[in-house]
Design a protein that fits this description.
By secondary structure, this protein is an alpha+beta fold. It has 11 helices and 18 strands. It has a 6-stranded mixed β-sheet with strand order 6-7-8-3-9-10, with helices on both faces. A 4-stranded antiparallel β-sheet has the order 2-1-4-5. Strand 4 and strand 5 form a beta hairpin.
């Protein structure tokens, strides 16, 4: 295994009786990587995490952590892992510092180093002000911080977090996400989640699992690139003949819409946006709107899952309410606005 590869999973399968929860998946986690392990509930995320951490035996396949095989050398492999399961393993009748001291002893940290290890973990997780409080009296957000602290107290190479923000309020989610980004500076992190925005917010690499199969494995930039569409909309005060638009390099199809708007399909490798602007200026077409179409993260996810894709837009009729950036609004004068399915309309362009 390459020295930069801290987790190697090869041909992993896990059966429960006749049911295959994880089907022959392979992937690696590099040093300093924050890997988002994404999938719907029941996709096999937690099973995979449990196999990697050694709490569940694989039916088939090989897993190595920091160069140690999880079956052949389990103690050394597990020593390189910090794990926060979906339900944090907390003793709520214990004080925060008392609990972390207990965890340090479980990880066999030398007695002379325990105090420094506790202090470092509390500083990383922002627990200094609650170190003498009962865990059971802390908010859920702070209890989650304690769970993360126990996972990193022995400074493992790999930190595995299973649904770390589930059940938290928006402020607590923001704080935990910030903490995860900080952890990525010192550890490799595997973040299991079914929340698209969470993975997009904190991860630099993404894997998507569905029905036990790995269906996507790329950088976060690779995922975001799939949000790019091959369509754009242009609006012109003095439009040319439609044939002139079709002759622009990269344009494959032009659909005429109302109010001198045109819906243009172009090749995946070449956007005609710049050429359209140049031609508009040369021909005095009076361009006042140019909107590249983007697919939402939800649409990309549904496409990868092989499910029916969320419709990219729908036209709203006069008098129908639409959620605007600054509150509720009603369409007037028969104007139609595009609305992504369940997503706020952020702006109204000239002529809308």
């Amino acid at each position: 295994m390459n020295s930069d590869t801290l987790v190697s999973v090869q041909n992993l399968s896990r059966f429960y009786g006749d049911f295959c929860a994880v089907k022959n998946i392979s992937f690696e986690v590099k040093r300093g990587q924050i890997l988002g392990f994404l999938g719907p509930n029941g996709a096999g995320k937690t099973t995979t995490m449990q196999v990697i951490t050694g709490t569940l035996a694989p039916t088939m396949g090989q897993i190595s952590v920091a160069g140690y095989d999880i079956l052949d050398d389990p103690l050394k492999a597990k020593a390189a892992i910090g794990y926060l399961p979906e339900q944090p393993p907390l003793y709520k009748e214990m004080l925060v510092e008392e609990y972390l001291r207990f965890c340090a002893k479980l990880h066999r940290i030398p007695r002379s180093d325990i105090s420094n290890a506790i202090q470092h973990a509390m500083e990383q997780c922002g627990l200094q002000e609650v170190n003498r409080r009962l865990i059971g009296n802390l908010s859920k957000g702070y209890q989650q911080r304690v769970g993360i602290a126990q996972a990193i107290i022995h400074t493992p190479s790999v930190v595995i977090l299973d649904e770390p923000t589930i059940g938290l309020d928006p402020i607590q989610i923001r704080d935990i996400r910030h903490l995860i980004r900080q952890l990525g500076e010192e550890h490799s992190v595997i973040l299991s989640s079914h929340i698209l925005q969470e993975v997009q917010a904190v991860c630099n690499h993404v894997q998507i699992i569905n029905e036990g199969e790995l269906i996507f494995n790329d950088s976060i930039d690779g995922l975001l690139s799939q949000m790019q569409s091959t369509h754009l909309q242009i609006a012109l005060h003095r439009p040319p003949e439609i044939q002139q638009l079709k002759q622009i390099q990269g344009v494959e199809m032009v659909e005429v819409r109302e109010n001198n708007r045109f819906y243009i399909q172009h090749t995946a490798t070449e956007s005609p946006a710049e050429a359209l602007v140049e031609k508009s200026v040369e021909g005095n077409w009076g361009i006042y709107e140019l909107i590249p179409e983007h697919r939402s993260l939800e649409q990309v996810f549904m496409t990868l899952m092989g499910a029916d894709e969320v419709p990219p837009d729908s036209l709203l009729e006069k008098g129908e309410n639409v959620t605007l950036e600054k509150g509720e609004g009603t369409l007037e004068n028969g104007v139609n606005l595009k609305k992504m399915n369940g997503i706020k309309v952020n702006s109204i362009v000239e002529g809308a």
